Amino acid sequence: MGYVFDFQDARDYTRWAAQPANQWAARLECDLMLNLLQPAVGESILDIGCGAGNSALPLLNLGMNVTGIDSSPYMLELASDALANRVDLYRGFAEELPFDDNSFNHALFFLCLEFVDDVDKAVEEACRVAKDKVFFGFLNRFALKGLQRWRKSFWGAQVFSQARLFSMWELKRLVRAKAGPVPMAWRTVCQLPHTQARMFNSIESFEILRRCPFGAFAGMVATLVPRFRTRPLAIRYIPKKNTAILRGSVPVGSAVNAKRHHFTDRI
Q1: Which residues contact 102 (CB under 8 A, 6 or more apart)?
Q2: Which residues on adjacent β-strands are paired with residue 222?
Q3: Closest by CA position to 153, among listed 6, 25, 3
Q4: Cα→Cα distances 135→10, 34, 149, 198, Å
Q5: Three-state SS letters, the chain
Q6: 28 CB contacts (<8 Å, ≥6 apart)?
Q7: Torsion over CA: 177, 178, 183, 185 (sign)
Q8: Each residue of 4-50: pLDDT tens digit?
Q9: Nearest-CA neighbor of 140 among 114, 112, 165?
Q10: Which of 16, 114, 133, 147 is the most buried (most CB within 10 A)?
Q11: What is the pLDDT of residues 154-189, one digit of tens each?
């Protein structure tokens, strides 16, 4: 089940998200998600651990059909207010998604896996309900300076202490253990501390910098390979020679006719 955000966590998050530095980081993170996921208008996507709806909003603005699920009723209330009933919201857990196989084009985790109890099961469930891609947005374990900033500014020290941090290599192995050798791509953002200088802010958009594996926020997308489960279909078949016997029209020189005469002679 993992850590479920309570009322105090939801209130702390509201204050945290309103800070200019965090809004700047959120824009970079959502931009990275869209660049890697490459969603199309009209496609469906499941936002697992949707929280207050920050990751769902840019997808809605692209014209996607968004469904959100979260374990915290307080975060779902924030999402409902922010998204104005433009998404279907469910209360549930990442390890037990209440949806059929291949229900969505895509699925995404956006700062959610850090708080999941059974990460293996959550990844397996995401790969089950999605048929095209799964996006993973997570805090990078190896971004030392970035994580120091997160630790100081993250809403509530208690919440951050519950987070499990990942490296890209660790998450790659985990995903491929569940989905097989699927194609994967990754990028990172929040390489530099937030400042008011436009020069430093524009540097974050450079593609070569996003290929650095030490950004505070990492994004990874897995392109799923279709899997089909088949079972034999029983078809009743009557051979032609048996049909001929039943109809009494067996050719005189046939092997079946010879057996028939042999049987008669023995009687």
Answers
A1: 128, 129, 130, 131
A2: 134, 184
A3: 25
A4: 24, 10, 24, 29
A5: CCCCCCHHHHHHHHHHHCCHHHHHHHHHHHHHHHHHHCCCCCCEEEEECCCCCCCHHHHHHCCCEEEEEECCHHHHHHHHHHHCCCCEEEECECCECCCCCCCEEEEEEECCHHHCCCHHHHHHHHHHHEEEEEEEEEEECCCHHHHHHHHHHCCCHHHHHCCCCECHHHHHHHHHHHHCCCCEEEEEECCCCCCCCHHHHHHCCCHHHHCCCCCCEEEEEEECCCCCCCCCCCCCCCCHHHHHHHHCCCCCCCHHHHHHHHHHHHC
A6: 189, 190, 204, 217
A7: negative
A8: 888 888 888 888 888 887 788 888 899 999 999 999 999 999 999 99
A9: 165
A10: 133
A11: 555 566 667 788 888 999 999 999 999 999 999 998
Q: Tell me the two tokens of residue 241.
A: 């020679």
Contact present, 173 and 122 (Cβ < 8 Å): no
- Asked whether the beta carbons of 210 and 186 are under 8 A apart, the reply is no
Supply the pTM of this predicted model: 0.78
Q: Whole-angstrom Cα distance, residue 117 to residue 99? A: 20
- Could you give the angle at the alpha carbon of 113 between the alpha carbons of 110 and 114, nearest 5°? 105
Domains in the chain and their CATH numbers?
7-223 (3.40.50.150), 238-267 (no CATH)
CB 113 within 8 A of CB 86: no
Residue 1 pLDDT exceeds 90: no
Asked if 173 and 144 count as a contact pair (C-beta separation under 8 A), the reply is no
